[in-house]
Design a protein that fits this description.
With 302 residues, this protein is mainly alpha-helical. Among the domains are: 150-222, no CATH class; 228-302, no CATH class. The chain has nine helices and four strands; from the N terminus they run H-H-H-E-E-H-H-H-E-E-H-H-H. The termini are far apart.
Length: 302
């Protein structure tokens, strides 16, 4: 009688798994001792504040990315030759451009904006942005930026990650990785949009790419409730919720122990812990009703 065939399955082993399994002897014990104090300060997936390479003067940076804004040649970058060649194709002296719709040989459209130089810097600003022009000496206008993309998705991705292809960390993720955060009770990197519609390219614009998910942005919703489910559900006491989350955290960490530093799972554990802390601290942070009337007026909230 033929013996039944026994199937042996070999699980795929990554390079990281191999190094951990073969190198985890006395060297791992020594490394654990060296890093013990640091791990007590911050968990593996927790973002800690780092010292910058040099002391910066800026206290805060507000990064506004305006997807779908008007053309630069109608706002801050006048091109007089456009009107000279209006109704004609690009002259041979100008490098051919590649467009997604194949319109590079079409006649040029006249720019109908009027321009004025503002401030001591003399920055030219079109009539669309007259009030912005009054702040010209507080602006730094960069006209040398170019894009390798042919459409909105690639251009937006390149603007926020430096590449037209997906998979690169966003600017916010790099800042989060490089500088960390002083606040353990709120997300380190927050994304605020003016509508529920995501920009072309979706969450890759604020994603962490090849870095751990801990560094990706946390999206706030538009409206009066940017963060949902901040309050404890009815009938659930704080002690019961904390006990439940503690049990979930224990299960996740036991699962993590067998997955050899799974950054995605580490980020998920950290998000549960952050969500619990946010219930106590986030409501005040997003409650704009407590701002003074002058502040609300300045930001157009009323």
């Amino acid at each position: 009688m033929n013996q039944p065939i026994t199937t042996h399955r070999t699980l795929a082993t990554s390079r990281r798994d191999f190094l951990v399994r073969t190198g985890g002897g006395f060297g791992a014990v020594a490394l654990a001792g060296v890093m013990a104090s640091e791990r007590r300060e911050a968990g593996a997936a927790e973002v800690v504040r780092r010292r910058p390479h040099f002391a910066g003067q800026a206290k805060n940076v507000i990064f506004l990315f305006m997807d779908g804004a008007c053309s630069s040649i109608d706002t801050f970058d006048p091109k007089p030759m456009v009107n000279e060649y209006a109704g004609k194709p690009l002259p041979p002296s100008i490098k051919r451009v590649i467009t997604p719709m194949g319109v590079s040989e079409n006649p040029l459209l006249e720019c109908k904006r009027t321009w004025k130089q503002y401030g001591e810097s003399g920055i030219p600003v079109s009539d669309w942005y007259r009030h912005v022009g009054e702040c010209a000496d507080d602006l730094c206008v960069i006209r040398s930026c170019t894009s390798d993309a042919l459409n909105h998705v690639g251009g937006i991705c390149q603007m926020n990650t430096g590449s037209i292809l997906a998979g690169r960390p966003s600017l916010g993720a790099w800042v989060n990785y490089g500088l960390g955060s002083e606040n353990r009770n709120l997300p380190e990197f927050v994304v605020m949009m003016d509508s529920e519609r995501e920009p072309p390219g979706g969450n890759r614009v604020w994603g962490s790419g090849f870095m751990p998910s801990t560094y990706q942005g946390t999206k706030f919703l538009p409206g009066k409730h940017p963060i949902l489910h901040l309050s404890t559900p009815d009938g659930i006491s704080d002690a019961r919720q904390q006990s439940k989350l503690g049990f979930i955290n224990q299960l996740n960490r036991e699962h993590l122990a067998g997955r050899l530093g799974d950054s995605e799972l580490e980020a998920r554990i950290a998000s549960y812990e952050l969500a619990f802390r946010m219930q106590a601290h986030a409501p005040e942070a997003v409650d704009l009703a407590e701002e003074t009337a002058a502040t609300q007026e300045a930001y157009g909230l009323n």
